[in-house]
Amino acid sequence: MRTENVQMLTAHHQLIKNDGDDVIQGLTQTPKILPSKYFYDDRGSELFEQICELPEYYPTRTEAGILREYANEIAQITGKCELIELGSGSSTKTIFLLDAYQKLANLSKYVPIDISGGILKVSVLKLQKKYPNLSIDGLVGTYEQALIKLASNASSSRMVFFLGSSIGNFNPQESDKFLSQVAYALNPGDYFLLGMDLQKPKDILEAAYNDNQGITAAFNLNMLSHLNGQFQGNFDLNLFTHQAIYNQADTQIEMYLHSHKSHWVSLEPLDLKVFLESGEKILTEISRKFDLAIMQKELEMHGLRTLKVWTDPQQWFGLILCQA
Ligand code: AVI
């Protein structure tokens, strides 16, 4: 199926159809967890865009500042290539790269990839207006589906990029698997640009995930609405509160939904009935905070050699450009 410039990597019902095994597994284990991919229905993606604008949420504007400053240098290093963005969302920060590559006539194509078809279609239309001569091919799908497609597609030189510290939402095993898939998808000489949030004092981190306007809380709670819609669940959002804490030992933010009453929840199509104690917490997300030197070693272990690293003056966020 192909609509405008946005292609589904698989039929839409297959993409959103999910047998829910991960929900069953997560809610029947102790402590309970829910996979963070369930944040991102269309409403969740919108809320995430709002998070990116919050005064406390520094990662987006810090990374944007680094890109604004160094996009030309990145384009000079890689030379002409196809730009492929994993988890493109609204592609706001990508503009810096697109402008720099266009200026140097180094851009052959832009391929934004996102799980949320709604937001992808809007951003492809917007970008197509801004860059009428640029070939833009949006792909709706998971990272895994996208990387499989890329691996089977030996084209010109490419730079895959993964911004916003989304890698921080993978646990170490998932991150390792993801980097293996990236390395496998790239041809020798292709580039990978990775954005990551760096370790910093706890108070700054906790404020970023417990904003005053309650947008992050709404984002966290929206996961339950998404599950209610997708699996006919009966989560009562009023019985949960959002909580985000920094786990210093694991250098990660942990986001929880805290049940403040003992109650049952059922998700009929999954044949699942779950009891939540008063005070029980469901882990909905980890957001790991990185050390640049350690990340470079990890990339190297996957055959991705660092070419250059950029940070902001406070060293709050980092970008690593590497080559396969
Ligand atoms: C998408 N990801 C990198 C965000 C983060 O900071 O880990 C998701 C997020 N969760 C709460 N606020 C933002």
UniProtKB/TrEMBL annotation:
<dbReference type="Pfam" id="PF10017">
    <property type="entry name" value="Methyltransf_33"/>
</dbReference>
<dbReference type="GO" id="GO:0052706">
    <property type="term" value="F:L-histidine N(alpha)-methyltransferase activity"/>
</dbReference>
<dbReference type="InterPro" id="IPR051128">
    <property type="entry name" value="EgtD_Methyltrsf_superfamily"/>
</dbReference>
<keyword id="KW-0808">Transferase</keyword>
<dbReference type="InterPro" id="IPR019257">
    <property type="entry name" value="MeTrfase_dom"/>
</dbReference>
<dbReference type="InterPro" id="IPR029063">
    <property type="entry name" value="SAM-dependent_MTases_sf"/>
</dbReference>
<keyword id="KW-0489">Methyltransferase</keyword>
<dbReference type="InterPro" id="IPR035094">
    <property type="entry name" value="EgtD"/>
</dbReference>
<dbReference type="InterPro" id="IPR017804">
    <property type="entry name" value="MeTrfase_EgtD-like"/>
</dbReference>
<dbReference type="GO" id="GO:0032259">
    <property type="term" value="P:methylation"/>
</dbReference>
<protein>
    <submittedName>
        <fullName>L-histidine N(Alpha)-methyltransferase</fullName>
        <ecNumber>2.1.1.44</ecNumber>
    </submittedName>
</protein>
<feature type="domain" description="Histidine-specific methyltransferase SAM-dependent">
    <location>
        <begin position="21"/>
        <end position="323"/>
    </location>
</feature>
